[in-house]
Amino acid sequence: MHILRSITRKRRTVTVAPSPFNGIKFELGIILLLLPLIWVVVERLVADTLLEFALLLAAASLASAWLVWRTRTVLRRLEREQKDGSQQE
After folding, report:
1. The whole model's pTM is what?
2. Which residues, at least 6 apart from 39, have a Cβ–Cβ distance to it below 8 Å?
């Protein structure tokens, strides 16, 4: 009987707890996949080492600024929701 239960057991799926930061985590994952791809493309297309470095620095800075902006936006929204919730009580 134990063997039958182990065969017919439902598969467990991986889930992520609900969080207002899940969208930012997803975007971080995309950025972590895109930056090495950008590195390879820039390395193939650009001959000048200094220009290559500048382009990679620009891409990394833009990605960092995007994540900081998105995180601050979510934090402001959470603070606003918390403030509105405490005023209603």
Report:
1. 0.74
2. 56
DSSP single-letter state for residue 1: -
DSSP assignment of 9-76? PPPP-------TTHHHHHHHHHHHHHHHHHHHHHHHH---HHHHHHHHHHHHHHHHHHHHHHHHHHHH
The answer as to whether 3 is a domain residue is no
- 31: number of Cβ within 10 Å: 17
Token reading at 46: 């650009």
82: CB partners within 8 A, 6+ apart: none
Q: Tally the domains of the chain.
A: 1
Q: Is residue 57 part of a domain?
A: yes
What pLDDT shows up at residue 6?
A: 58
- How far from the centroid of its chain's Cα atoms is residue 44's Cα? 27
Residue 9 lies inside a defined structural domain of this protein = no
Residue 14 lies in a domain: no
